[in-house]
Structures are given as C-alpha cells and as structure tokens.
Amino acid sequence: MTHILIAIVAILCYSAAATLIGMRLFRKTEGWTPQRPLVLALIFVGLMLHSWLLWDSIFSHAGLNLGFYNALALTTWTIITLLLVSSLTKPVENLGLLLLPAAALSLVLEASFVDVDFMRPSADWPLKIHVLLSMLAYSLLTLAAVQAVLLAVQDSHLRSRHPGGFVRTLPPLQTMESLLFEMITAGFVLLTLALLSGFAFLENMLAQHLVHKTVLSILAWLMFGGLLIGRFRKGWRGRTAIGWTLGGFVVLILAYFGSKAVLELVLQRTA
Questions:
Q1: Strand partners, 65
Q2: Euclidean distance between CA atoms 5 and 160, whole angstroms
Q3: In which residue ranges of the chain is pLDDT below 50?
C-alpha cells in the first residue's frame, strides 16, 4: 500500500509540473504565469519519490529486477534526472511537457504490473557498465527526440508566420538547434561506448534473442552518426535534422523496448 501511495504522489507531482509547463507555453493572457523554480521543485519532489519506488522495486538480495516495466520506469527516471540537471544551466525544462507525462505513465505501469527479470549480484562489471552506458545513451537521445519535436513545432509556426503564443516562450531557433545537436552528440558518444562495451565484453551480443536488438542499435547508431556528419560537413539543419533525429529515435526504441516487450510480454522469456 505504501508503494502505491508514493507512486500516486509522484505521479501527481509530475502531472502538476507538466500542467504548469503547459500553462507557461500556451497562455493567451497576461495573467499569472507559473514560475520556473516552482516547476523545477515539483519535478525534484517527483524524482525523489520516483527514486524511492525504483529502490523498492528493482534492488533485492536476488539481484536487480530489470523486468520490462521496471526497466521502463528506470529509463524515465534517468531521463527526468538528466532533464532536471540540464535545466539548472540551460532552458530545456519545457521538454518536460512531453517527458513528465511519460514518466508518470511509467510509474502507473510499474505500480500496476509485476514482472521479474533479475540481473544477479554476481554479474560481471562489464555487463553492468554496458547496461549503464546503454541507459544513459537511450535517455539522452530521448531528450534529443523531444527537443526535435519542439523544434519542428517552432519551425512550422515560424514558416507560417505565426511566431506568437507557444513559440514566443521558446528560446530562439538557433539556440534550439544548438541544444538539439549537443544532446545528439553526447548521446551518440554514449551509444558508441555502449556498443563497443557490448562487443568487447559480452559473448552473446549476436545470440538469437539479442540479434534484433543489436542490429537495430547499430542501425540507430549509423543514423545518428550520419546526421552528425551531415551537420558538420553539409550544414544539415531544420527539417532534415528533425527527420533524422526522430527516425533514429524510433529505431533505437524498437531496439531496446520493442525487443524486450516481445521477449518478456509476448514470448514470456527473459533477455
């Protein structure tokens, strides 16, 4: 019961923060505007409760329980942590408009369903490093994908000569693009290290139950790498950058959560 209550409060904090961000972005009058510190405070409280829930669900004497719903909640925790830390120095808290509801949904699923997929305490450290790098790469590239969505909306408004309202609250287009490529570059580096650590230390990267994950991860890596090359050699930007970012993100999500969902929820097997 305590677990459920804490999950409800965390969900409410995330939902309230997302609502306040929406009020800031879509306000049409000059009335009360939610202040940035209030939004960040709600995110922080939600994140602390999210952390408690993960500790209660994932860590046990049998090892780390990284079943589908726990892994999803852990991924959203990493994403929100990166969002909160980044928001201290950069204007990226508006990404929470999409990310916070996703984090709240992951907690609903985590609290509603029980699944088991243990990583034993005796697991080798290279495996733990590989999992950590993969999680950070997925999370950073998720931030980049949401940034790309906001950039697409901003670009569309500017092209249609309607720069007011929602777009008015966003940083300039050039700043938004710079933030996007900073996220993609950092995520690409982490994804590269995750793939290298997998091939260097793991013996089953191309095993039957992992081959789809490996192939799709490499394809996503090629897409993000191609985007960065295009950016620095041909000056790719705007809709081209947005398309490549979202395409790479979809492939990456299919690589991890798509294959994990099929294995655990459909085939009832663990990875």
A1: 118
A2: 46
A3: 208
Position 57: which residue type? S
The pTM assigned to this predicted structure is: 0.82
Q: How far apart are CA 114 and CA 118, in angstroms?
A: 13
- Other C-beta atoms closer than 10 Å to the C-beta of 235 total 8
Q: How many residues appear in the chain?
A: 271
Q: According to the model, what pLDDT value does residue 114 have?
A: 72
pLDDT tens-place string over residues 25-38? 777 656 667 788 89
Encoded tokens for 218 = 């490499």
pLDDT for 6: 94
